[in-house]
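Weekly modeling sync, notes
Attendees: AB, CL, MP (scribe)

Item 1: holo prediction request
CL wants a bound-state model with zinc ion before deciding which constructs to order. AB pointed out that an apo prediction alone won't tell us much about the pocket. Agreed to run with the ligand included and paste results into these notes for async review.

Input as submitted:
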Amino acid sequence: MPDTELLYARDAYLRAFDAHVQEVTSDGGVILDRTALYPTGGGQPHDLGSLTWDGGAASVSDVRKDGARIVHRVEGDLPPVGTAVHGEIDWPRRYALMRYHTALHSMSGVIYQLYGATVTGGQMYTDRARMDFLLPDLSADRLRQIEERTNELLAEGHPVSIQFLPRAEAFEIPDLIRTRVNLIPESVQEIRVVNIEGVDQQADGGTHVANTREVGQVHITGSENKGKGNKRLEIVLRDG
Ligand SMILES: [Zn+2]
């Protein structure tokens, strides 16, 4: 069975698409030949949406990765194998997650530029996000600096580009080495790179806005000690 073509990986702004049903799993998961629906991964929650076809309709309640294929969990009718379906994405939800994803990468760039601190994890929601990083000393002063510098950069309007690089080439980029590109399994020969120009560059599978101006402004709502020098920041976005 061929891999699912990941339409969202090349065009994050694709809200609707057409595809064919390749398989329906024994527990009712729908596998398409291509999809614009993002599966849970990399701290970004899955999309919601709908599938419609001649004589049927279903809403998509969960999207997960299974190896190189994407499984859509649906509520409603089940499309038979071979059916041509039309997919639509819950766009307000996805766009909020894109803004939060680019916000976290921008902050990650700022924290590295200011303090040489590296990020250890992140989680996005539609109305907030959090990020974990290694920084023993996180004073109120530093929190203010992080917020200010991030907001300056966001307002400057840096373009966000997606590139697919051969593994060897990606391994030469310092930003990618810092964010541990080497942990990507050797079977992956093409590395997807999200470059917030002049701010941050990471190997990443998520969906991002096209320009930092779309993020708006970041507000740090809380910080927490997670032990062993690990810190956690919570943010919300406001329109810029
Ligand atoms: Zn990411």
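Recorded for review: The chain is about 25% helix and 40% strand.
Action items: CL to compare against the apo run; MP to circulate these notes.
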